[in-house]
Amino acid sequence: MKSYLPPIILCCLLCLFSFSCQKGSTLPPKATGKGSDSSNIDRLNDVEKQVISPYKNWEFGSKAYLHTKNILDIGPRPIETEGHKKAQAYITTHLDKFGWNVSRQSFKAMTPYGERSFVNLVARRKDAVKSPNIVLAAHYESKIMDGFLGADDAASCVGALLEIAEHLPSHENTIAQQMELVFFDGEEAITPSIEYLKDGLYGSIYYSKYMRNDVAGDKKTYLHIPKIGMVLDMIGHRNLSIKIPSDTPKSLLKSYFAVIKKHQLENRFGVANGSILDDHYPMNMIAKLPTIDLIGDFSSKSWWHTNKDNFDNISENSLNLSIQVALEIIKHQLAKSGEQSKFSNENPSINSQEIWSKTT
Q1: Helices marked H in 81-199
Q2: This model's pTM is above 0.90
Q3: Gap between the Cα atoms of 267 and 275, Å rounded
Q4: Is residue 223 part of a domain?
Q5: What CATH number is given to the structural domain containing 220?
Q6: What is the pLDDT, as a whole number, of residue 199?
Q7: Count of the separate structural domains present in the chain
Q8: 334 phi and psi angles, rounded to 5 deg
Q9: Taking burial as the number of CB atoms within 10 A of a residue's CB, which of 23, 140, 156, 297 is the most buried?
């Protein structure tokens, strides 16, 4: 669950609710059922299809839309379930097919319901540079709720990452070579709301700590902190409304506004009134990796964290636009720093199947 900071009244209510739900229980709520059938859903779009990217012969959003459907057809995918494992297998199979080495960053973490197991999936191109300059991430598990599918939160974002993994190398491999794709586990709190360092954001916290410690130590996986971080969350809703956190790092905020203003997208892309607790937060705070959270506005959405967050909500055109905006922000950042060409001739990275040997 994403949350705004500081939501004092809401936090109090949620804490009371959480206490009443947990009283007398040592087990988390269970997610059962298959969720809504998506096999005969019509494609609904409230966003006009647009082309803002110079890349040719890339049907933006099309593959992401199909990946989203396939992931939802697995059913709910909360941690430590068969659906969770099937989602991991789906992601890994497609990344391998697209020429990416996938590593499993397995770890255990304490939760309000005891120790639980988590798995981040981390991918780099087989011809990647030694150490990534870009991290592009999304979470793949669904919240522990009966029948909850999490179509936009965040199967749509997993679909977007898989589409980028397939098409970016053939259009601009020098960028793909610098990129690390991360599929975070455990973004969702087990209790109703994220409480930083206590519940939720398990995968991004572990990943950020590993990166920070590795750069400061053996440098087995990272020679340096990457230059650019981006998290995608809820970017496929047919009524697209992106609101990035107000405390987004200034350089990324400038690139965001540059892209939005250039293509006159202010009606769909804006800034939230405050900070947001999401996977970008530990990346910024722990790893000190400047990260932007391209996140849909969830503050007043009746479907958010309910069974209404199903394939009905997803728009191919919203994915089309969100993917292009994400890539244009990254390219704007690279152009500002001159990284796009600087690192194109670096030697390939170490075998990424081995990079997490200390954590699995």
Answers
A1: 82-97, 156-176
A2: no
A3: 20
A4: yes
A5: 3.40.630.10
A6: 97
A7: 1
A8: -65, -40
A9: 156
